[in-house]
Amino acid sequence: MAQLKDRLRTDLSAAMKARDTTVVATLRMALSAVTNAEVAGSSARELSDEEVRAVLAREAKKRREAAEAFAGAGRDALAAQERTEGDVLAAYLPAQLDDAELACLVDDAVAEVTAALGERPGQRQLGQVMKAATAKTAGRAEGARVAVAVRAALAG
Q: pLDDT tens digits, residue range 29-54?
């Protein structure tokens, strides 16, 4: 069994004993999303820790987007609830890269693609650089942030 999934279940039990309703609801939702991902497709299978992290990252992103939507609509209580759920999920995800670290990894990816091509990549090689940069960030930065950094590196 994936260690992260086991940790989620253990933390769920602890939250139930502590009667922490927000954490209980959030972890139940997360475990439900993991179970849905396991049974999706042609056959059921056990997810690896990386796949569980990817599911949790998607759920955390949903919470951020919902919080922004609620805040924009003036529903501050619901926005705060979504942010709290996102914070619970963030505890199970790797720390996000800051802009300087992301720029450094993108520069490494550009150098890697430059070495493979024999010339500095341009906008036409955006996909190749994105593939290398995404592999280097390994879930520690959202794809949109990586894309902005890659475009900036290729433009300048």
A: 999 999 999 998 888 899 888 899 98
Residue 24: count of CB within 10 angstroms of its CB: 19
- Would you state the structure tokens that stand for residue 22, as one six-digit string? 């927000």
pLDDT at 121 over 90: no
pLDDT in tens, 60-106: 999 999 999 999 999 999 999 999 999 999 999 988 888 899 999 99
Compute how many other C-beta atoms are within 10 angstroms of the C-beta atom of residue 85.
Answer: 24
Reported as half-sphere exposure (CB side, CA atoms, 13 A), residue 28 has a value of: 9
- Residue 29 is encoded by which pair of tokens? 């939702």
- Among the residues of 19-120, which ranges form H helices? 21-39, 49-72, 76-90, 99-117
End-to-end CA distance of the chain: 46
CATH number of 3-90: 1.10.1510.10
Q: How far apart are CA 101 and CA 135, in angstroms?
A: 14
Determine contact, residues 87/27, Cβ cutoff 8 Å: no
Q: Coil, strand, or helix at residue 40?
A: coil
Q: pTM for the full model?
A: 0.78
